[in-house]
Write a structure and sequence with these properties.
Layout: H1 2-26, H2 28-62, H3 68-85, H4 89-99, H5 104-114, H6 160-163
Helix pairs in contact: 1-2, 2-3, 2-4, 3-4, 3-5
Length: about 170
Amino acid sequence: MAKLFLLFAILPIAEIAILINVGELIGGWYTVAIVILTAFVGARLVRQQGLTTLTQAQQKMQTGIMPGQEMAEGLLLAIAGVLLVTPGFITDILGLLLTLPMTRPIIASNLLKRLIIKTVEPSFHQGFQSPPHSKQNSEDIIEGEFERKESSSSKPRLNDDLNKPD
């Protein structure tokens, strides 16, 4: 609760105070120009870094590796985008830290250490040792065709009730 209070009450007040002080030092229009410039530069940087991170994640997924680090970095880039577009110098500094390729991986790995990540493995019926799409079983795939033939027996079958139209 205290973190939310800091985020929604104290941070905007601090941002306004800094904007007023900077405006008094360099002028109001220059301050507005800096805020707009950081939003544009930040948006471009987030886009470029986001594409790089997406490419890295796709490469890992193609090799069968879970892209956890890249997913965390993508989340940080989304947060950075919001922070960089939000007017203010504190949010710009935080957004820049989340965007830079030198600091983002460090923050993402610390974030991953704090999160509990559970991977869900599919459950298979008896007889299957590994998923059918694994590289190990790719040689055991047999392609073929089948034909469904109606039985001539008059006995009702177990699945007959399922095949009847409602």
